[in-house]
Specification:
Blueprint: H1 6-36, H2 42-63, H3 67-73, H4 77-102, H5 106-127, H6 134-154, H7 159-175, H8 182-207, H9 217-241, H10 246-252, H11 255-267, H12 274-302
């Protein structure tokens, strides 16, 4: 057997980190992009995102030679049955996120994506019968306490954060059982949404109230550019995860909500109350415990201790 070249392995890991980190950074900085389109209703932005993303993804599928997998997936009723609910969940997630960003709720959106890994644990326990380890239970309790505290002390139920976390959590849960790659799956989801999206955009255009070709060339380019913002980080993420351990990806995923949090506080000057600070601190503690537990569990599962010979 040919020995593994350590330098090559290191290069692949470094490139994986750079790809995955870049993907999460793009997602984390995306509020800056959506803010440019804040004069346009969130639903209309989503419809444009679907149409332009589908066109861009078709080009990517051909270029990356995923065409056969894409056409084959269209012939499988089971795949369609799985991807219809994920399409709805993805559309809801996009709508809530863009609406939140353009209505000055970037901090709540950030909180939602901080909570998401913990929601994944909860959904795995409920639907996949996964047993919780002790530290996972502690993490969930801290997250639950933070939401309750925020609700009662801040006086507002964090529905944006929880909606984003649960929508993306259920999306990941269902996609987990879909025998289809991330890029092809997203392409099928965009195909399912493209019909209603095109009809809605044409309806607005005929009435003369649509944004495209009616406001400015800059807005037109930003609407079309939603395709790149959607597909490019997904491609980077896919390339990165192929070269990295799952535990490393788990740590890197916090780049996105951290970037959102910093944008909300320092760029958009969203008010940060003491109740929000306390809730975020609890969530960060919960995520730290969760990450330490995940790393330890991964290390034990990949490098089990040698059995003691009696």
């Amino acid at each position: 057997m040919k020995p593994i070249d350590p330098s090559k392995s290191g290069q692949e890991s470094l490139s994986g980190v750079m790809c995955a980190a870049s993907a999460f950074l793009i997602w984390g900085l995306s509020p800056m992009y959506w803010k440019v389109l804040r004069q346009i209703p969130a639903l209309e932005i989503i419809m444009h995102r679907v149409i332009w993303s589908f066109l861009f993804l078709i080009i990517l599928l051909v270029f990356l030679r995923y065409g056969n997998e894409f056409t084959a997936s269209l012939k499988k009723p089971r795949t369609f049955a799985i991807l219809i609910p994920t399409t709805i969940l993805l559309g809801c997630n996009w709508f809530i996120y863009i609406w939140a960003v353009n209505n000055d709720h970037v901090l709540q959106a950030s909180l939602g994506y901080f909570i998401n890994p913990l929601i994944n644990i909860l959904l795995g326990m409920i639907f996949l019968r996964e047993r919780l380890r002790r530290l996972q239970t502690v993490s969930l309790i801290l997250a639950f306490v933070s939401v309750l505290y925020l609700t009662f002390q801040y006086g507002e139920f964090p529905w944006i954060a929880l909606s984003l976390a649960f929508a993306f959590g259920f999306y990941g849960l269902i996609r987990k059982v879909a025998p289809i790659s991330a890029l092809v799956g997203l392409s099928v989801e965009m195909l399912l949404l493209s019909g209603p999206a095109l009809g809605y955009i044409l309806f607005l255009y005929i009435r003369g109230v649509g944004a495209i070709f009616h406001i400015s060339v800059r807005i037109d380019l930003f609407l079309m550019g939603t395709a790149f913002l959607t597909a490019f980080p997904l491609l980077l993420f896919t390339l990165g995860t192929k070269r990295l351990h799952l535990s490393t990806v788990g740590f890197l995923q916090y780049i996105a909500p951290t970037s959102m949090f910093l944008l909300g506080v320092f760029l958009y000057n969203e008010p940060l109350s003491s109740a929000q600070i306390f809730a975020f601190v609890l969530i960060w503690i919960a995520l730290f415990i969760y990450s330490v537990d995940a790393a330890r569990y991964y290390r034990m599962s990949t490098h089990p201790p040698n059995p003691t010979i009696a």
